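[job 0412] stage=fold_complex status=start
inputs:
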Amino acid sequence: MIIDLGDDAAEFGRVVRDALGSAGGDELVQRAEADPAGREALVGDLLGDLGLWELDVRGSGDELEAAVAACRSVGWWGIPASVPERLARPTDLDADALVVVGGPRPAAPVHGSSLRWVAVDLDGRRSTPTARPLPTTPRKAAMVAEVDLTPVDDLGVDDVLFGLLLPCWTLLGMLDRATALTVEYVQDRQQFGKPLAAFQAVQFQLTEAEVERAGVEELAKYATWSVATRRPDALADVLALRLAALEAADLGMRICHQLHGAIGFCDESTISWISRYSLPLRRLPLPVSGTRTELTRRAGRQGIAGLYA
Amino acid sequence: MTRDLEALRAEVRSWCEEHVPADWRERQTGVSEDEYVEFQQSWFQELRQVGWAVPHWPAEWGGGMSVPEQAVLYQELARADAPRLVLAFVGIHHAASTLLHAGTEEQRRRHLPAILDGEIWCQGFSEPDAGSDLAALSTSAVRTGDGYLVNGQKVWASGALHADWCLLLARTDPSAPKRKGISYFLMDMRTPGIDIRPVQQATGHSHFCEMFLDDVLVPAENLIGAEGEGWQVAQATLGAERGMTMLELAERLGFAALPWLVDLCRQPDWRGHRPIDDPAVRERLAGLEIEVAGLRSMCRRFVEESERGAEGPADASIVKLHYSELLQRLTGFGAEVAGVAGHQVLDKPISSGWESGAWVLDFISSWEWTIPGGASEIQRTIIGERGLGLPREPLPAKGTA
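[job 0412] stage=fold_complex status=done
writing structure:
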């Protein structure tokens, strides 16, 4: 088992992050929100020029690694441009993007999208989603619309793995960014004549968030390897990753907000945008308790093999 | 004399049945600012007519309920899911306690009856560079003739857009040590030179405001307490925010939030499972029930002791810290139980409590609670230093504290 991303993948991730930075950086999420119909085109060509859409995500472990690194970089900027979903698209259907759905009122971040979507539930049943009109603003909905599903087939077991795995990497990228922003903020912000970072009570909260984030990073690499090699436990591994990522996001975003103070809730601060656009990834297709239930159901009595089997 | 509590309970309950508008939640969801203000004002006057708008004020000013009576009142209002007095909050709590604590008779006579008539207040304390370190504030008030000329910038002035008056802290003596040079003013929001800008928040609301003060003339008679003693007066005001207001909020947790959470757990999910049948859920609910009971009892004791001037040095901080973190745990659990369906509730009524039953939104807005009125880090410092008598944090460079 090799759970470190290859150098090429890591380098590709850096290239994607820099390219998005040059193309607008933190303004991209704001532009995406202002124009939901244009949010995919906003970065689509740029990422295409870097070769992202040609990656053989399903067939090559190396190319999957490049894809997850790119998803992480998209998370760094918090851009809701359906990137992990496009990378997870099924190869046996004529479709542009894949989303995993669940629950009695399935929903997906498809508002304004012009892509051809396929939805899959956790049991591998595939369908074509049709977005309903938003009951509120795209901002409040964070691009999530309820969808009506027209059944296609039940051949999507493999799709579930990729549909769950790739967005976890985007969420990890958001946690990377939230941590980096907060580290920067507590060093800049002076109160009582010194930076907030000089208070150990502040340092310890941030280290707690960092330990959780670092744990997710390890699990994400492991789950990626597990999916790439199609281990029998792969779905349980991906669900375990999702659970860890959701818990780390709950704790980490809480702490990053607390340390930013009131400014963190305002649009003028980047953390507010990252945190808002992390919500769809955290709640869909299953929030914490639903993910835990599914993991328990899948892992059954034998448990999961995990990292040190 | 304390009225018979059960009689009071019955009276409030039947009044609520008649007066709480059945459709107020729908009417207050997604409404304009004007509709919100109008609704809050009319609800305030309804409560005022029966003597329940300011039960915590002294009898001579229109209050006079004992602490157990107040608790019963708040319990029944919560049980009936009555709207909260959100708009009047700063006026009936912070402004009133400041006036009662440090105001002259004339200032009290001018404002306390006006607050009952609907005068709205906001707080002008925090500044861009003075948040947790409030004493670092730099808005200046320079004596001129029979008034003060105020210049500076305030932030996080909740509700400033609708306020008639502002509780303002400004520096009158820049050469004094930083806590000594601050004075406390009552500022008329119609004075020329005040510019209010709402700030767009993550929740989509903009009740926080920035306030720019450009040569605002505040008459000397609107100084409250002595010049240079504003810090002490502010401590009393913040004490009210941390402590006294908690009586109502704690009872709401016990009589609205918790029962609603239990109801939520009784609803079958889409697979037909009821969360309440899960032992892990029952254990969490029981844990929350214990914490809420503890908080309610703590708040009641605190308010009774502070009325007698006998509260402990860190009690207000303990109560505020406990409430804010418990609110987060409770609404967080609500969000967890509500699951994906809970995430599809994207609006909540504007006049509701911090627990509205829109669990995900409640959870997100509960994050605010550990920041204003002294962030949790500040409360912990106070509890450590004043409550437990631990050594002070190492002080920063000379001349800044």
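[job 0412] summary: Chain A is about 55% helix and 10% strand.
[job 0412] exit 0
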